[in-house]
UniProtKB/TrEMBL annotation, chain A:
TM spans (from-to): none
Domain Aldehyde oxidase/xanthine dehydrogenase second molybdopterin binding intervals: 4-267
One Pfam family named in its UniProt record: MoCoBD_2
MF (Gene Ontology): oxidoreductase activity
Alphabetized SUPFAM superfamilies for the sequence: Molybdenum cofactor-binding domain
Lineage, opening ranks: Bacteria, Pseudomonadati, Pseudomonadota, Alphaproteobacteria, Hyphomicrobiales
Cross-referenced InterPro entries: AldOxase/xan_DH_MoCoBD2, AldOxase/xan_DH_Mopterin-bd_sf, N-heterocyclic_Hydroxylase
Name of the protein in its database record: Molybdopterin-binding aldehyde dehydrogenase-like protein
Automatic annotation (TrEMBL), chain B:
Xref: PROSITE patterns: 2FE2S_FER_1 (PS00197), 2FE2S_FER_2 (PS51085)
Protein's UniProt keywords contain rRNA processing: no
Keyword tags: 2Fe-2S, Iron, Iron-sulfur, Metal-binding, Oxidoreductase
Keyword Amino-acid biosynthesis carried by entry: no
Lineage: superkingdom: Bacteria
GO molecular function: 2 iron, 2 sulfur cluster binding; metal ion binding; oxidoreductase activity
Positions of the 2Fe-2S ferredoxin-type domain: 4-80
The name this protein goes by in its record: Carbon-monoxide dehydrogenase small subunit
Amino acid sequence: MAIRKGRGVAAINYPTGMNLGGDPSQALVHSTPTGNFMVSLSSVDLGQGLKQVMAQICAETIGVPTDLVTIDTADTDTGPHCMGTFASRGTHRIGNAVRQAAEEARQVMLEVAADELEVNASDLDTDGTGNIHVKGAPQKSISIFDTALAAHFKRGRSISGRGMFLVPRSFPETETGAMKPATCYAHACVVADVEVDDETGEVTVVSVKNVYEVGRALNPKMVEQQLVGGSWMGISHALYETTEPYYPNREHGGTDFNQYLMPGPGDLAATETIVIERPAADGPYGAKGVGEMCANPQIPALANAIFDAVGVRIDSMPITPERILRALKAQAGEMRTG
Amino acid sequence: MARVPVQFTLNGEERAEFIESGTTLLHALRDTMGDTSPKGGCQQGTCGACSVIVDGELRLSCLTLAQTCEGAAIETTAGLAAGGVLHPLQRAIMDGFAAQCGFCTPGMIMAAKALLDHTPNPTREDVIEAISGNVCRCTGYEPIIAAVLAAARSNSQNAG
């Protein structure tokens, strides 16, 4: 009986968004009379930072500071349609819709500014701090504040735009079953080191080293917090979490979240996380979805590490001490009979 | 049930209310006093989201009867940003991106404050022990541990 060390590796491709029946999201952008910008969405921020990233995308596209953008996700009854926040789709799908809406609003804004400056709209550019100027002649400029005032009170224009992003449904080909379930994929690779006690079946995750390819990290700190939390959650999926922890009688199963096991702050593995950016061709500023992807590769990596440590393949989750001991017992039985 | 008077200080302010006898401190704070910073997670003392400080000690407000707090000094996260200036723990949680959905955050902050009030220069193990009664689903805990240690460092720098 001993503590046995093992190392496992896993790599994954993870699709951004979903395919069932098409995957649309819409956005509307408009300016207030004083040049603040409102983005109306039905999308929900679960805490991953959707509002922040949508504000960044809108601000970058229109050419204003991010704090001039307000994201309104108030009501799915009245907002433009969104399929929802799931399937790692938010940044990619909703971000594309926001970008398209912001581009249309920007065009109107530049047309109003062009009228005010008596120049051609195609000769105008923004400086990102709230001003519009003639390319090559920054002294000939107008603030977005004054442009919005002019649009509202003088020119009778609505500085606004509509955004619609749809990934159409992909039907499988009858003969081959081939289809295109996603337009872009995030990637990850994990190396996990474990120690397995072959007497108790207990697994200690010594370390996980994660490399994530995320498209472009639009907000690097928020991407990092997703990845760090996701890595922990992947370990939790692999080794802890189940609604039916007691075998074989369902009556012994958990009835509440307080019987739903997750690793606590004292159970953390040494975790290293590296981000690689390969912008997606169809993502807003190159972004892909990272939400779910980051919690997946730890699972096969840990299963492989446990196999490396004690030589048993566990193919159901979570990989509990009980399952490891049963597998070890079966393996020993095979060796005796073999 | 009978309505009974209860009187205590909440974040330094004298409060006196009538509550239903048997009301938990969590519901008295949220429903009667209007302080929704303590969260009702499990309502049975296992998740820590309702954590508050009563007379300097960390307490689960969902398991504490409000009547037992007569005359006590109660602190919640809502009272931390005195004069609009964030508490070092709040600042560190923000700077360290140590909150996502935010539901555990007020309880985490009170658990950490109870630690730092007693142990201004905690070790990593002290921090882990202090927040081990608080469940977080989003962060993986590491950013929270780092934020509490950072807040302790900024406190000692300010004090020194």
